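User: I'm writing a tutorial on reading structure tokens. Could you give me a worked example: one chain, its sequence, then its tokens, then a sentence or two explaining what the tokens reveal?
Assistant: Sure. Here is the example chain.
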Amino acid sequence: MKLDIVYGIHAVTTLLQRSPEKVTELWVVQSRSDKAMQRIIKLAEDQGISVLETNKGQLNQKVDGNHQGVIALRQPSVRYTEKHLEDVLDNIEGTPLILVLDGVTDPHNLGACLRTADAAGVQLVIAPKDKSAPLNATAAKVACGAAEAIPYIQVTNLSRTLKDLQQRGIWITGTAGEATESVYQANLTGPTALVMGAEGKGMRRLTREHCDFLINIPMAGEVSSLNVSVATGVCLFEAVRQRQS
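And here are its predicted structure tokens:
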């Protein structure tokens, strides 16, 4: 069985807090002994997890990214696939708030979107299988544990999936620069699937055509658009604000 690799201070800390039983081994760099690392080592030792000290060079060989001096080996996590979509939707508690990422190909942006979605209480993140970032170790590190907490499902036909959501009574709200209604004017209190497009290109044409509403984020300066993870945070937390009012 091939083990998954989780790396980075925040990602490993969250893993040890949420799912320590899945961690088989912890690798830490010898030269780092600050409070954050001491906390990780204590969490591991309290759970009887082997902690192996090594040098930075060996950790660099194990991952292609900023491991911050710590790597955890864990049992393979549950990977949600399209066949799980109906069950996940059926088991959503409360008013649905779903995030749809159309054309987000950078794992760093995916990880940041997952982290924001988890913080905002999103129950499900959907993306097309083509031209979308995979949920790899880089995305998981940036997500800081959110990849373990929120289902990320890639679908074959995003347009068909949006239709299925509409049949469930979920309104599809897409973000587009040319929209006449701002996110602050929109009603996001009901069952909502928020669609975020790729930077620059935005949503694909077919995705746009399946939206019930289009909204924009008002821009006051010279910059024409925001990073997709930042824009996702703006929109999701406006939905949170409305739902808590």
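What the tokens reveal: The mean pLDDT is 91. The longest helix spans residues 228-244.
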